[in-house]
Amino acid sequence: MSEHAPASERRPSKVAIVGAGSVGATLAYATLMRGAARQVALYDINREKVRAEALDIAHGIQFMPMGEIEGSDDIEVCRGADVVVVTAGAKQQPGQSRLDLAENTVGLVRAIVPELLTVAPDAIVLMVTNPVDVATAAALKVAGLPAQRVFGSGTVLDTSRLRYLLARETGLAVQNLHAYVVGEHGDSEITLWSSAMVGVVPLLDWSTTHAPLLDAEARDRIAGEVVGAAYQIIAGKGATNYAVALAGASIIEAVLRSENRVMSVSSELDDYVGISDVCLSVPTVVGREGIGEKLVPPMTPAEVAGLRASADRIREVLRRLGL
After folding, report:
1. Could you tell me if 310 and 163 lie in one domain?
2. 44 is annotated as contributing to ligand binding
3. Keywords of this protein's UniProt record, alphabetized (predicted)?
4. Cys staple from 140: which of 13, 79, 150, 166, with CB 3.0 to 4.6 Å?
């Protein structure tokens, strides 16, 4: 028997997105525009809103790769999804940190994740709602799934912001700048300068021959811009949605296309540089089964200490919420 089913028997890939707010609706659009999945289900308790968002996207299907979208306030719309993405949660207000949203978001996660798994029991669960590290820990606890199938978008967006700023600073293509942001998706996140690369050259070596480009002062400024990016955008327009949706769509692609791509997603750590029992972002292989190996890049003692401090910050919130 062939290991591949005949084309007529193959089921199209399906992604269910929970929440038709600015992030959820834009993620549905990005997923279809990139051809990441053939079917997208958009679920929200606001019936008119979710139907309108889905209809607006559906009217542009002609200009996308083949696909379809359905929006509903009935959780049945998520049935059979290969990937379930949770974007619903409390909206971050100007001046609020992501951790300020924890209690409301955890309550939603506890309510919605078990319901989703009744209609999509084989799905990979991707958390995008903030605070994503806390939400991922809550989802993992209530889902009862293997840890590899529940993870968060983590610092994938922060890493993209970092590489954009490095490209702007150096004038080089963003695809040739390799650097990661790890830890909390939030104020305590860490930029791993010691393992960053400009093409095939270690960034710290490159900066010494191109000073003042990417010198210590420039690196501190860039790291600060990455941390403050969301606050700036939220103050200006009320929410971030475009870049986070593209980040989410790229994670979905890595899963559905079995890409085994290294991404800084958030997942439960087990003795990662001495850190355990907390969800944080580290470079991780993402593929069809969810998350795989967590890679340990070279880190300075200061970077390791920063990552551990980030873990302590998240762990304190988890304790406060009974997680």
Report:
1. yes
2. yes
3. Allosteric enzyme, Cytoplasm, NAD, Oxidoreductase, Phosphoprotein
4. 150
